[in-house]
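General statements about sequence and structure are easier to judge against a single worked case. For one protein, we set the task of working out the structure tokens from the amino acid sequence alone. The sequence in question and its structure tokens are set out directly beneath this paragraph.
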Amino acid sequence: MQKILDCLIFTTVKPYTGTQEQSDTQVSANDMCALAEWPSHARRNRELLQNETDGQKKKGRGVLKGLKASKKRYANGSQKLNIAFSKNLGGIVGMNYRSFKDDVVVIMKRKLPLIGVRRWSDIHPTIHRQIVVDMIDRWALEDTPKTEEKILKIAKERYRGWRSTLCATFKAYKIDAARLANVPEDLQREDWEWLIEYFGTDSKFQEISQKNSDNRKKQKKKRRVGSKSYSQISFEKRNKETGEELDCVALWELTHTKNGTWPNQESQNVYDKACQEIQNKENETQGPISSEQRSNIFQTAYKDTLKCKSSQPPGKHKFNWTGLEYTPRTL
């Protein structure tokens, strides 16, 4: 295994063209899920989609190509684009934050192998470094260990998300012939063949996948602000004069309520307990407490209220109030 991965470091990865030659195998509707049952983040089957929408074309987002960042760079005289980081959470923020993530995704897909990779640690550090170097070439960033850590955290999260989408696509078809006839457009055929074998036969992967699926069904606390990261929300709601961002309790309320209403009792209980404990601490010290103390109180309230092992709120954009934004689940 290690020899295979080491060889991949020095292999030139062909950039995908956005189209794939599909198999001539005829796939019937019985070989795939109906549109109403299609996994939410699986790649849509175009023919099925057109049939079930009475022949009308329905546009999708398609495969990310990083065109927005390229246009911005061209308009900027091909100079490096600027990016900032949240003072509180450490995540990327500002007008270019989506373009920055898009660039990471495009580079990640070109650099990181799929074949032979079962976990993030299987990928050789030299390939990680190639992603960092390419990003620094495109963005106004200093080449420091902290910068590398931030870039690779995004790459790891998006790589895991990519594979999750491919796994959902695998599950959308009932037989391998149908899967092979519908190669995802951002994959080489040999990559898809290996993933079909891996998703379908690796017992350890299937066990973890089922466990993650069951855990997601149990989650009762939902964010109300879409896909925007906690760092970006905190940055947008900062005090424009002082630059001070929201503290953890205020950010929790903002991202878990709509028009002042809590969607579930669990989210409100976390907020109420944190506020009560902060008030008790301030009465004890006879004055306001530091941001770090508020953070520690909030994380303890979250853990105690929801009876969970982690003190970090779950979701795509987890946060660590004392440092970097992160998502610690394994691949």
Strands lie at 84-85, 92-93.
